[in-house]
Specification:
The complex is a heterotrimer of chains A (270), B (158) and C (780). With 270 residues, chain A is an alpha+beta fold. Chain A is built from 11 helices and 14 strands. Helices cover 28% and strands 24% of the residues of chain C. The chains are: A alpha+beta (270), B alpha+beta (158), C alpha+beta (780).
């Protein structure tokens, strides 16, 4: 990789201030995406500001009607959180399926969400849970946060502090992993809120990254069942085609994974 | 450049390194601990797995400076003097290696997998072991004997 | 002692001692004092004329020592790497053009001279003080390219208007030959009751050993000698090639290989980086070290397989096979390095079935892709796939039972030796025997229950069978030098080279078998042309076979000479001396002398005849031009999720005949690894190129490697029908595992999907390929 200067921040303020003092600086969270892209000389920041030692960014808090996950909470910590599992086991399961055990020890929810890889798992969950992304400056709802392939609403020096959401009444994530990368070839997160409204977040399949499948949402809100999705079509022109799966196949996967998510979520209490 | 200092296999290891030096290269080139290997550039093969503060992580996907102050264990630090770690012995007993290139990372992953299960009060079944190796690729063994070795070591350690 | 650690013992491995503690010596572990580093600048175009290469900006960078191009190489009077595609091991069918025309062999320089012919071909060699400095300088090398039309698919390349790689060749077809007898085949097809047809592309696969390729070279100006450190399949072949390329004599080149982190054929050639490292070391007077990065290995390793086949099988009304005809088209890549994948497959197309007539058209074309070369069981997985798929198709379409069809046509044991219709003579074997063992392991009786259980989880379950034969040949000559040292050690110098097969242990077992010593007393030395000056390397299942014959021969000479000396020393007639468990003794006279003591006497004492004096050592040369034919039978069950097309291998059993298993534990290990590689080929592996030669699967993110969670545990059974073409019955066991696997898994998947009446699914059987096949049948 190109030369860099490393800075370790001990607070959010320090981190933000460090980044503004340098040109071509980037935050590094778990590094599981950034380091590989730097090794390939695709990413070329001159300065790295390490967020891993900022204690206020860590931890999972579960209150009656709100879950707060610190941005620097690792996938392993989310997956293994007994507290989180008691209110939203679907998110624990999602985190436990990211990458591999070693990657999960370092990768963070904040890093994943800020990166918005079109095949990452968390963005689908954020959309389906109607989560809020709390930064050091504002709170952005998921619908407004994810803008496109690797694009988010974050400003260059904005830091995600936490993810906040109300646990769904029921929800599940069904992922069909790509055999090589283990990223989602298609991943569908289905969640029903206590007002009965269903949200469906889809990753890995869309040409523009994560999206909400509104046709599925309406059908499932009316009728929470796999059969409700039978006659709802998925727009093939919106689907990604690559060497692993063409658009037609992805259309199929979106529906199959959505149905499997519904099946998994059915009968689950929170 | 940063002066990094960390504990490696129980001893303090320090050096002035460029900030871009990966942990795996710090171990291999600065400390001459060449048992940890590099097998890919997309953080998938696991040949570089070491323990940092008790967790098995990919040393090719982290900078040495990120681990400044941490406690690192590599394959060279596993055996106790002349006594092999049960996982090392099990790999030999069950023919869990052929060319040996993926082996250090495989063993480090296995050790942590078993220790974690022990801490959590779980036993390891074959399916759990196989998924626990999702981050370790072997081209020689077909994994069959690696799984046998891990099962055997786990029955000893847990 | 012999019982426990000679032939047949599952001795735990000596090489593990260093490998499990991280003390292996792999390519990148070597650091030479004062070393410089090298990085290759590679063509981003699949086919382009090189108009100019500007190196000034790169060379001006601090820490850069040299930026070398093909023009520099040629100016130094250096030569292309020798291409020897016509050289085949004697039992294999020859490479001859049917029209008698000579086979075109283009020059292959280590850096592209006037044209780059594949994405990844090297165009400049940057040497500097660190890899990062070299990478940055490499970005400043300005190459002006003129893009040309490019082609990646072998069938498309038959039409030279899509792209023409070699102007002198005028087409892309390098080989167009014939095997078997077309007349006999045509006649048989005339009277056939049934004909089934298969049209398939067996995809390009890359070996992807976990250790990528490496090279390091140092030059000793006083001795005038360059040393290349490079893991591969041999040290003598690269030495010979470097002598030719760099105009050096025997004494001026040394090649050393230490621990090799996997090979599978991928490291068996003299790669450009070998010559470039050596050349740069000589020019700069400093060692030069190069490591292939994984993305680079996808671009520049030699790939395997990539065979397009059209085949037809003719049967009579009882299901007896009458004839087989095929066109086999091999994708050579940009340079014709080897016809072995094409020819070793073609010669075994009839497999272990009795087929009286066969013919094949054997074609090989150049395309704008990296060269292909033998990859584990080169050609045989392709051939077995065709035969086993044709049999299942014949069963389905003509109303036969697929097991009975195999039984009816397997060559009976009594009919061996058997001449197959391509001219290969199978030595010995029990083909029906291994098949019946596989069928028993298959537990057909329990299948309906397992199928129902899969069904209850929404999955289709199928069972697939596949028999195989393969040919262990390889370079004919091998030499072992066995020395008995008075201090209690036996050293063996041999010209093979292990990359994980466990030779350090299994070769010791051979010494134990024939000299009766402890395996601890044995030292195996390979991998250094200064030590093992002669030998053929490891490939094609030759190592164990040749090690056994050479070590046995050398041991026999040592025992003969030792017996004579022992007779003298014990003052007994020779016929009263016997050698047993490391001792020369006469039970009757109750006198004995042990081998090491005898060696000491031979070295130290003067009062013995001259011809018995000196080092107790024997050099055994073996020249083998016959093949031993490993064979076997595998069976597998798969589950298919028809909603997603995902395939899971649920069960896999392998029966493999290795003639005689030296170390059953390592034989099983080789089988496991081969099965895994075969399952990868069947379900997930393919080097994907765009039509015009852009590599689309350039990392493990896109090239799927089987993980532990993709595979089940395996059931293995070693069969040992001694080979009659090997003095000790050995066949070789490292390539059998991968040979039928592609066929077996495909047969199982198609069995699972029987209700959809699918004849063929595009390989590999990825979820989307499987799903597309189902979808296209379901819509009818």
């Amino acid at each position: 990789m190109y030369s860099i200067t490393y800075h370790r921040a001990s607070s959010v303020e320090e981190a933000a201030s460090l980044l503004t003092s340098f040109e071509e600086g980037k935050f590094i969270a778990g590094g599981q995406t950034l380091i590989p892209t730097m090794k390939l000389r695709i990413a070329a920041p001159s300065h790295l500001v390490d967020l891993r030692h900022i204690e206020t960014l860590k931890g999972i808090t579960v209150e009656k009607s709100m879950v707060t996950i610190g941005a620097m909470t690792t996938h392993a910590e989310v997956a293994g959180s007994v507290e989180l599992h008691s209110v939203c086991p679907s998110l624990c399961a999602l985190a436990g399926g990211i990458g591999d055990p070693a990657v999960r020890y370092m990768g963070t929810i904040g890093g994943s969400v800020a990166n918005n890889d079109p095949a990452a798992d968390y963005p689908a969950a954020m959309m389906a849970l109607g989560a809020s992304i709390v930064t050091n400056r504002r709170t952005i709802v998921a619908d407004d946060f994810f803008k496109g392939l690797f694009e988010t609403a974050l400003d260059d020096t904005e830091i995600i502090a936490a993810i906040r959401f109300k646990p769904p009444v029921r929800g599940a994530y069904a992922k069909f992993p790509s055999p090589a990368s283990r990223f989602a070839m298609t991943g569908v997160f289905v969640a029903q809120a206590d007002d009965g409204i269903v949200r469906v977040g889809v990753t890995g399949a869309g040409l523009s990254g994560v999206f909400r499948q509104t046709g599925f949402e309406q059908a499932l809100t009316n009728d929470w069942s796999q059969a409700a999705l039978d006659n709802v079509s998925v727009d093939e022109s919106m689907m990604l085609s690559d060497i692993h799966a063409n658009a037609t196949y992805r259309v199929n996967l979106v529906k199959v994974m959505a149905k499997r998510a519904v099946a998994a979520a059915s009968g689950m209490r929170k | 450049m940063t002066y990094v200092s960390m504990t490696v296999n129980g001893r303090t290891a320090s050096a002035e390194v460029e900030d871009r030096v990966l942990l795996v290269h710090f171990l291999r080139n600065h400390l001459r601990l060449t048992g940890t290997h590099v097998g890919c550039d997309t953080s998938q093969c696991g040949a570089c797995v070491v323990h940092v503060d008790g967790k098995a992580i990919k040393s090719c996907t982290t900078l040495a400076v990120q681990m400044n102050g941490a406690s690192v264990t590599t394959i060279e630090g596993l055996a106790n003097g002349g006594e092999l770690h049960p996982v090392q012995s099990a790999f030999r007993e069950h023919h869990g290696l052929q060319c040996g290139f993926c082996t250090p990372g495989m063993i480090m992953t296995a050790v942590e997998m078993i220790e974690r299960a022990k801490r959590d009060g779980r036993t390891l079944d074959e399916n759990t072991i196989r998924h626990g190796l999702d981050g370790n690729i072997c081209r020689c063994t077909g994994y069959h004997n690696i799984v046998r070795a891990i099962e055997a070591a786990a029955s000893q350690m847990i | 002692m012999r019982k426990n650690s000679g032939l047949g013992a599952s001795l735990r491995r000596y090489e593990d001692d260093r490998l499990i503690v991280g003390a292996g010596s792999f390519g990148d572990d070597l650091n030479l004092p004062g070393q410089a580093y090298a990085v290759m600048v590679r063509s981003p175009y699949a086919h382009a004329r090189i108009i100019s290469i500007k190196i000034e900006a790169a060379l001006a960078q601090s820490g850069i020592l040299a930026v070398l191009t093909a023009a520099d190489y040629v100016a130094d009077g250096l030569k292309p790497v020798p291409l020897r595609p016509i050289t085949v091991s004697p039992p294999d069918i020859p490479a001859v053009n049917a029209d008698g025309s000579p086979i075109f062999i283009p020059p292959c320089y280590p850096l592209a001279l006037d044209r780059a012919r594949y994405v990844g071909e090297g165009v400049a060699w940057v040497v500097g003080e660190s890899i990062e400095l070299c990478k940055s300088a490499a970005e400043l090398v300005e190459v002006e390219y003129e893009e040309l039309k490019a082609v990646s698919d072998s069938r498309a390349a038959l039409d030279s208007t899509t792209a023409l790689l070699w102007d002198d060749l005028k087409s892309n077809v390098v080989l167009d030959g014939r095997a078997g007898s077309a007349a006999a085949v045509d006649e048989a097809f005339q009277r056939a009751r049934h004909v089934v047809r298969l049209d398939a592309l067996i995809p390009r696969q890359t070996g992807a050993p976990m250790e990528p390729r490496t090279a390091a070279a140092s030059y000793d100006p006083v001795a005038g000698k360059v040393t290349l450190y490079a893991g591969g399949g041999s040290v003598t072949r690269p030495r010979g090639d470097l002598m030719h390329m760099l105009n050096l004599s025997n004494e001026q080149v040394r090649v050393v290989a230490r621990d090799v982190g996997g090979n599978f054929g991928t490291k068996n050639y003299t790669f450009p980086e070998f010559a470039l490292s050596a050349w740069a070391a000589m020019k700069l007077g400093r060692p030069v070290k190069w490591n292939c990065e994984r993305i680079e290995s996808f671009l520049s390793d030699f790939h395997g397989r990539d065979l397009a086949v059209e085949a037809e099988l003719a049967l009579d009304e009882t299901g007896k096979f009458l004839a087989l005809r095929s066109t086999n088209l091999s994708n050579l890549g940009a340079y014709p390095f080897s016809f072995i994948p094409l020819l070793k497959g073609t010669e075994l197309m009839s497999s272990l079935y009795d087929i009286p007539a066969a013919s094949a058209r054997t074609m090989a074309v150049c395309t704008n892709t990296p060269p292909t070369a033998p990859l584990r069981s080169a050609g045989r997985p392709e051939a077995m796939f065709v035969m086993e798929r044709l049999i299942d198709l014949a069963a389905k379409k003509c109303g036969f039972d697929r097991l009975e069809l195999r039984r009816r046509n397997l060559i009976p044991r009594a009919n061996l030796p058997y001449n197959n219709p391509y001219g290969m003579e199978y030595d010995s074997g029990d083909y029906p025997g291994v098949f019946e063992i596989a069928v028993e392991l298959a537990d057909m009786a329990g299948f309906p229950e397992r199928k129902a259980e899969s069904e209850s989880r929404g999955l289709k379950r199928g069972i697939g069978f596949g028999n195989y034969i393969e040919s262990a040949s390889g370079a004919p000559h091998e030499r072992a030098i066995v020395t008995v040292h008075p201090e209690g050690k036996i050293s063996v110098i041999i010209g093979t080279l292990s990359a994980g097969q466990g030779h350090d242990t299994s070769f010791r077992q051979v010494v134990v078998e024939f000299l009766g010593v402890s395996p601890d007393a044995v030292e195996i030395r390979t991998g250094d042309t200064d030590v093992a000056t002669v030998g053929g390397g490891s490939h094609s299942g030759r190592s164990m076979r040749h090690a056994t014959t050479t070590i046995a021969k050398a041991s026999s000479e040592i025992i003969t000479r030792g017996t004579r000396l022992a007779a003298l020393l014990l003052q007994l007639p020779e016929h009263q001396i016997s050698f047993h468990d490391g001792k020369f003794s006469s039970p009757a006279a109750n006198r004995s002398i042990d081998l090491f003591e005898l060696a000491r006497v031979a070295l130290e004492q003067r009062e013995i005849p001259e011809d018995l004096r000196g080092v107790l050592q024997a050099t055994a040369d073996v020249h083998s031009t016959v093949s031993s034919f490993p064979f076997g039978s595998h069976v597998s069950e798969v589950e298919v999720d028809i909603e997603t097309g995902a395939v899971t291998v649920a069960r896999y059993a392998a029966v493999d005949d290795v003639g005689r298993a030296v170390n059953p534990m390592t034989v099983d290990g080789q089988t496991h690894g081969g099965i895994a590689m075969g399952i990868g080929e069947a379900l997930m592996e393919k080097c994907v190129y765009s039509e015009t030669g852009e590599l689309l699967s350039a990392s493990f993110m896109d090239y799927a490697m089987p993980r532990a969670s993709d595979l089940p545990s395996f059931t293995t059974h070693i069969s040992e029908v001694p080979s009659t073409t090997h003095p000790h019955g050995l066949r070789g066991g490292s390539e059998g595992g991968v040979t039928p696997t592609l066929a077996v898994v495909c047969n199982a998947v198609l069995d699972a999907l029987a209700e959809f009446d699918i004849d063929h699914i595009e390989l590999p059987l990825t979820p989307d390929h499987v799903w597309q096949a189902i979808a296209s049948r379901s819509s009818r």
